[in-house]
């Protein structure tokens, strides 16, 4: 089952942490997260799964930044989240999707115990101006049935910034 907005609020500060938290961003069954003021873009057009790919940082000014189609941008949420006993899930907001901006299309499934900022995969179908602090996506929570292992360590746990893919580490096992 997905937690209702009221249940999210009920578990805040215990099993669910969102910092900073703004009650006005609570929806019937999710919470809106906002975009940090930086993006990253990979430095090369051809990427390699088996190698670390370098990326450059772009600061989004207050007057906005125009995203270009067919280019992958990595963003980050302003909000730090931590979850115990629930599965965090991330989706783009429908209002953003209706402008042709796709947020976190392939990797919205979090792990029980995830702690950190969410790196967002951002892609658009036509040029669009985006702004820092815009409510760009929403987090929601599934309960979990049965025994489970809590995510405590991993490539993306306890992150503080935008993270490029670390898939290359899987090739070193």
SSE layout:
Blueprint lengths: L4 H7 L4 E4 L11 E4 L3 E5 L12 E5 L5 E3 L5 E11 L2 E7 L1 H4 L3 E3 L11 E10 L3 E3 L4 E9 L30
Antiparallel strand pairs: 1-6, 2-11, 3-4, 5-10, 6-9, 7-11, 8-9
Written description of the protein model:
With 173 residues, the protein is mainly beta. It has a single domain (2-145), classed as Distorted Sandwich (Deoxyuridine 5'-Triphosphate Nucleotidohydrolase, Chain A). The protein is built from two helices and eleven strands. The strands form four sheets. It has a four-stranded antiparallel sheet with strand order 1-6-9-8, with no helix packed on it.
* Separation of the first and last Cα atoms: 36 Å
The CATH class:
Mainly Beta
CATH superfamily: Deoxyuridine triphosphatase (dUTPase)
User: Total number of helical segments?
Assistant: 2
Largest sheet: 4 strands, antiparallel
SS elements, strand count:
11
Mean pLDDT: 93
Strand content: 35-45%
CATH structural architecture = Distorted Sandwich
Structural class label: mainly beta
Using only C-alpha atoms, the radius of gyration works out to 16 Å
Low-confidence stretches: none
Shape: globular
SSE order in H/E notation? HEEEEEEEHEEEE
Helix content: under 10%
Q: Widest sheet: strand order?
A: 1-6-9-8
For the record, the count of structural domains works out to 1
CATH fold call: Deoxyuridine 5'-Triphosphate Nucleotidohydrolase, Chain A
């Amino acid at each position: 089952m997905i937690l209702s907005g009221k249940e999210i609020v009920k578990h805040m500060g215990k099993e669910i942490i969102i910092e900073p938290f703004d009650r006005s961003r609570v929806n019937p069954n999710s919470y809106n997260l906002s975009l940090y003021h930086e993006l990253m873009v990979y430095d090369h057009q051809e990427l390699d799964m088996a190698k670390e790919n370098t990326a450059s940082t772009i600061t989004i000014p207050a007057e906005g930044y125009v995203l270009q189609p067919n280019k992958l941008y990595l963003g980050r949420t302003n909000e730090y989240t931590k979850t115990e006993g629930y599965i965090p899930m991330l989706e783009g907001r429908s209002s953003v999707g209706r402008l042709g901006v796709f947020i976190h299309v392939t990797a919205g499934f979090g792990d029980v115990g995830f702690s950190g900022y969410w790196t967002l995969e951002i892609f658009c179908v036509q040029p669009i101006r985006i702004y820092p602090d815009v409510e760009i996506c929403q987090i929601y929570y599934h309960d979990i049935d049965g025994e489970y292992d809590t995510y405590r360590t991993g490539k993306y746990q306890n992150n503080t910034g935008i993270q490029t893919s670390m898939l290359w580490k899987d090739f070193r096992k």
